[in-house]
């Protein structure tokens, strides 16, 4: 009897194994030859599942791997069974644009734009077009140039605090120089925080039990975990399981970041301030009032996207300027000729600083703060043509910014930092560069709402820093920016250290 049962079990397992094998073979054949995207080239393993793409993303080498795929396979690459990556600039306006009668505006991909850990939706992750439009209208005046210039005192004061911090000759754990990446994180954190919450910002920071910049450090650590959660949603039920059994690292990053946003939102709401910070304009916007939970969710992403991305740009720009001393001297000369004192530097005056603006644009091109990302969209019903090919409805599509910006057909010496390419009258610029193909703030109805503030911050910090200081040393022998940086949706930056010497006047 036992032998018979054993035999039956063995036969069952054998049959079950054969069924599984047949299913796998059929799946391989379908994705290779019968799937609507079967004709598009790409890494062989990518066509069979999303795992390979998420491996590339979470390895931190995704931007370079994806760029290599485009160099090998062309402007359209199948990076997952139902996901096409484009390196064609013209695809950007179709995929991210406002839409036409022939091709409606494409919806955000809900697998990429996942809800926050508390289930809330905000200006970044909201996929419903009507809801997103309502949110954008509610937030838009906060980021208008007129409102930002009205609050310029925050930008100037916080930048002056940054100047004092980097001028201190101190050693951290015996290491030479200032951890300038961290200082950039802190100055953008302070600017965004006070712009958002006004008078309650400092009050809340002083009340919290952790150190002043604990939230800033949490934000940096959270950027990677956001991509982990995007991978998690590919496995049915795993996201819900992790909500119940929260791993320690998730509690210390994703959940703590959401808690900080909620705590600061509640503190500002209790203050009933009339100061025209971002919260003031949210509360006084026309249309349906947002709930406190929604407001906190908006500040969750405003603090994340606003602080980290600008700090990323500043870090990259400083690194490349340190490796291009001629460009650094040109920038310093422009700042020091134009302004008699550091206090004379204002946002309006910086609009007309030609070389500074060229440095900003080139910094955004060579190290775009969100350039590692695939901001995927869903092809609408009926399908459409992109880059000369018909793409079926329901396909996930995205443009890979890194590949567009590092394509030698778009920019000459694309891997080199050349601010002069943005100046029509200076060599070695303007050698066939297609400048309009650099879109660091994306494009269309979901383009970056914080673009104006980012430009103001980038100009102000660079202008004041290079007016006041010379960079006398940085750890060039220890780091290689592209070797040591990790490209997730946002970047994890190397530990750039530098020493600054105030210019005698």
TrEMBL record:
Transmembrane domains' residue ranges: 12-33, 301-322
Binding positions (heme): 448
Molecular function, one GO term: iron ion binding
PROSITE patterns tied to this protein: CYTOCHROME_P450 (PS00086)
Residue ranges that the Swiss-Prot or TrEMBL entry lists as coiled coil: none
Cofactor(s) it depends on: heme
Keywords noted in UniProt: Heme, Iron, Membrane, Metal-binding, Monooxygenase, Oxidoreductase, Transmembrane, Transmembrane helix
Keyword GTP-binding: no
Family from the record: Belongs to the cytochrome P450 family.
UniProt name for this protein: Cytochrome P450
Organism: Amylocarpus encephaloides
């Amino acid at each position: 009897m036992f032998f018979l049962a054993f035999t039956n079990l063995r036969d069952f397992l054998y049959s079950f194994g054969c069924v599984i094998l047949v299913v796998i073979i059929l799946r391989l054949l379908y994705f290779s030859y019968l799937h609507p995207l079967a004709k598009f080239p790409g890494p062989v393993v990518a066509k069979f599942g999303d795992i390979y793409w998420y491996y590339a993303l979470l390895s931190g080498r995704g931007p370079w791997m994806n760029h290599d795929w485009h160099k090998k396979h062309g402007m359209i690459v199948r990076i997952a069974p139902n996901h096409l990556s484009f390196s064609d600039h013209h695809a950007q306006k179709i995929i991210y644009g406002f839409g036409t009668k022939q091709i409606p505006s494409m919806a955000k991909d809900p697998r990429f734009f996942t809800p926050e850990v508390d289930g809330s939706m905000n200006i970044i992750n909201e996929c419903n077009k009507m809801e997103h439009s309502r949110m954008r209208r509610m937030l838009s005046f906060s980021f208008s140039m007129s409102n930002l210039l009205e609050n310029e005192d925050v930008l100037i004061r916080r930048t002056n605090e940054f100047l004092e911090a980097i001028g201190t000759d101190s050693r951290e754990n015996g290491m030479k120089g200032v951890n300038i990446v961290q200082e950039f994180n802190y100055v953008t954190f302070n600017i965004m925080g006070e712009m958002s919450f006004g008078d309650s910002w400092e009050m809340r920071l002083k009340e919290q039990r952790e150190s002043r910049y604990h939230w800033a450090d949490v934000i940096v650590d959270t950027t990677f975990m956001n991509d982990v959660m995007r991978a998690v949603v590919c496995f049915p039920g795993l996201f819900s399981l992790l909500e119940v059994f929260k791993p320690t690292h998730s509690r210390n990053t994703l959940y703590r970041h959401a808690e900080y946003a909620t705590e600061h939102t509640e503190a500002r709401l209790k203050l009933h301030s009339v100061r025209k910070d971002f919260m003031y304009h949210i509360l006084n916007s026309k249309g349906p009032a947002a709930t406190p939970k929604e407001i906190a969710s908006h500040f969750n992403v405003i603090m994340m996207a606003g602080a980290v991305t600008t700090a990323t740009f500043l870090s990259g720009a400083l690194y490349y300027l340190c490796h291009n001393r001629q460009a650094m001297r040109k920038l310093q000369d422009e700042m020091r000729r134009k302004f008699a004192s550091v206090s004379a530097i204002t946002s309006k005056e910086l609009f007309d600083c030609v070389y500074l603006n060229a440095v900003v644009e080139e910094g955004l091109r060579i190290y775009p703060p969100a350039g590692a990302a695939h901001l995927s969209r869903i092809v609408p019903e009926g399908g459409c043509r992109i880059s000369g090919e018909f793409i079926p409805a329901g396909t996930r599509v995205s443009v890979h910014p890194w590949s567009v910006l590092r394509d030698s057909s778009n920019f000459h010496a694309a891997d080199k930092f050349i601010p002069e390419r943005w100046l029509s009258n200076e060599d070695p610029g303007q050698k066939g560069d297609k400048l309009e193909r650099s879109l660091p703030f994306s494009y269309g109805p979901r383009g970056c709402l914080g673009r104006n503030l980012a430009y103001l911050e980038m100009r102000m910090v660079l202008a004041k820093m290079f007016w006041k200081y010379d960079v006398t040393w940085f750890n060039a022998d220890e780091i290689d920016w592209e070797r040591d940086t990790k490209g997730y949706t946002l970047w994890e930056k190397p530990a750039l250290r530098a020493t600054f010497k105030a210019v005698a006047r």
